Amino acid sequence: MRTFLLLVRAGFRRHSTYRLALLAGTATNSVFGVIRASVLLGAIGSAGTHIAGYDGPRVLAFVWWGQALLGVVNLWGFQEVGQRVRTGDIAVDFLRPAGPQLVYLAEDIGRAGVNFLARGLPALLIGALLFDLAWPPGIGSWILGLLSVAVAVVVAFCGSFIVNLSAFWIVEIRGIRLLWMITTGFLCGLYVPVPWFPDWLRTFAEWTPFPSMLQHPLDILSGRVDGAAVWGTLATQLAWAVALVVMAQVVLQSGRRRLEVQGG
Amino acid sequence: MADFTPYRVVLRSRMRAQLQYRTSFVTDVVGTLGVGLTELAEVLVIFHNVDVLGGLDFSAALLVFALSNVCFSVADMLVGHLDQLPTYIRAGTIDAFYVRPLPLLAQFMASDISLRRIGRLSVALGALGVALSIGDIAWSAATVAIIVLTLVSGTAIFAALFTAAGGLQFYVVDGAELTNAFTYGGAYAAQQPQRVFPDLLRIFWTFVVPTAFIAYLPAVAILDLPGDHLAPSWLAWFTPLAAVLAWLLAAGCWRAGTRHYQGAGG
């Protein structure tokens, strides 16, 4: 546990080095936030008062929490692990006392922390200054909402980790990464809320881990899901987190048996 | 008359190189196709819930989406690699461009062409075809002229945004994402019915970063919609002027940026 926390701190410090990049991220997220907020508000105005449980303030919360969490949850994935598998450097990771999954997860949590404080919160603040957002309906929603964000970070990390590990079997994984990025962006509810999808697409999305990466935390934080239903949402997310953690470990171990590193 | 041979040779070699690794190339094309499709899906999902957005019905909104996406895909294919400028600056390889006896911007533009963007372009062209055929359009020479003018000037405006962003990147190497706000953010704004924005923002997207000229204003003119105080239908004819102004600004940014650069040393 101590090792894990130290690794989280290392990840935090590594990613807090690029201050200008964080500031740039906030600015870009805010511009997209303003555009998306205008579009979705326009849609709600045109529909009457609400669409699928989202009224004006809630959809604004959806947009701005979404922009704030965009850099926190690793939606676009990473490529470091895949490259290390490809070059054989992953062998070094296997030799370390802590398993690769734990090490990379710790670093990703550190990265998420920096992005939440330095990139997410400022974007949220800008959103709150410009628009009239709905806030989580109670202290319970705040706590469970933030917990839900943490679980989302784990789910997104494990998904991308598994994608990276496919490099054990396929040398060039760029295609799979691209496919992952495109599917995630759409089905996680970054562009439009998943509940707005046509029935067949929504049902499909709900059977995938993608809504657990963004839509579920947004549902809780915007107050669209409230009361006892919050626990159900959180349970879905936790189930996906456990499933993906286990699956990543299984893939990692079978990849390890396959791995041949040359050189001396 | 300038001699274009060096540019042609470089471009041809870049294209050949990309087509060399077939699987990689096909993967990338499928990737940009997927990006195009998700962007389109966003419009479809919104219109699954409403009939009108920002005063536009589905066919009109699709026309706005298509015009801006065709222009963006072409501009991205031609000069999108200006985005990679910080990589060149960090690695110091930009110096090689400075010492060659050709204009820096022209060299840089010709240094690559992203054929893979053809995937996204095909989605945009498909959407344009559908939008023009289902739209209620009184075809005339003026309509055709507006469409052609828009496609050319719109591409030029996006290219100008990429160039201006490139110029600024000499100042903010680590903060390259900052300029994404104008390039990709501008592209996202361009494909929206502009009436969803508050007036202040519409003025910004029309007169400061002129992305409203790329799709919304032309669509109002093509479909002969009533327009409003910030989008009278005659304004579409000023799209080429907006492109010229955008390029003046871009040239200024690029010039300032390239002069600001001190070299990597060595």
Would you write up a description of this structure?
With 264 residues, chain A is mostly helical. Chain A has one domain (2-258). Chain A is built from eleven helices and two strands. Chain A has a two-stranded antiparallel ribbon. In chain A, β1 (50-51) and β2 form a beta hairpin. With 266 residues, chain B is an all-alpha fold. Chain B has one domain (21-260). Chain B contains twelve helices and two strands. A two-stranded antiparallel sheet of chain B has the order 1-2. In chain B, a hairpin with a 2-residue loop joins β1 and β2. The longest helix of chain B is centred in the middle third of the chain and has 29 residues, at 141-169. In chain B, 45% of the residues are buried. The model of chain B has no long low-confidence stretch (mean pLDDT 89). The A-B interface holds A 18, 20-21, 23-25, 27-28, 30-32, 34-36, 38-43, 46-47, 51-52, 172, 174-175, 178-179, 182, 185-186, 191-192, 196-198, 201 and B 23-24, 27-28, 30-31, 34-35, 38, 41-42, 45-46, 48-54, 172, 174-178, 180-182, 184-185, 188-189, 192-193, 195-198, 201.
Count of discrete alpha- or pi-helical segments spanning 4 or more residues of chain A: 11
Number of strands of chain A: 2
Mean pLDDT of chain B: 89
Largest β sheet strand count, sense and barrel closure of chain A: 2 strands, antiparallel
Large-scale geometry of chain B: globular
Tally of strands of chain B: 2
Number of domains of chain B: 1
Notable features of this structure?
heterodimer; A: 264 residues; mainly alpha; two-stranded antiparallel ribbon; B: 266 residues; 12 helices; 2 strands
